[in-house]
Amino acid sequence: MKYEFDADYKKMYLTMFNAATDAANELVRFNIGRASEILISAQEKCEDIFVDSAEDSDEEYIEKETDNKTESEHTEN
């Protein structure tokens, strides 16, 4: 069985794009610390989105594997 992983790349992209825009606005105001905070926060949010997607995919993969084993056991008997 092929393992498929579907991360929500659109959500991660939009999160980072919006953060980059907000950080750029802060840099224009010379708020370097705030710009850094915005980017770090966005990075953490994207990591959470990615990890959550991986965990969901792992659960689905395990369920499919369990279902396939159960089906093959019934077929063999």
Walk me through this protein's architecture.
The chain is mainly α and 77 residues long. The chain has one domain (9-76). It contains two helices and no strands. The longest helix has 45 residues, at 32-76. The chain is rod-shaped and about 70 Å long.
Backbone CA Rg: 20 Å
Distance between the termini: 22 Å
- Counting structural domains, the number is 1
Number of helices: 2
State which percent range the strand residues make up. under 5%
The counted number of beta strands is 0
Q: Which percent bin holds the helix content?
A: over 70%
Secondary-structure class = mainly alpha
Order of helices and strands: HH
Note the main sheet.
none
Principal-axis shape equals: rod-shaped
- Average pLDDT confidence is 83
Low-pLDDT segments, ≥5 res: none
In short:
The chain has 77 residues and is mostly helical. The protein contains two helices and no strands.
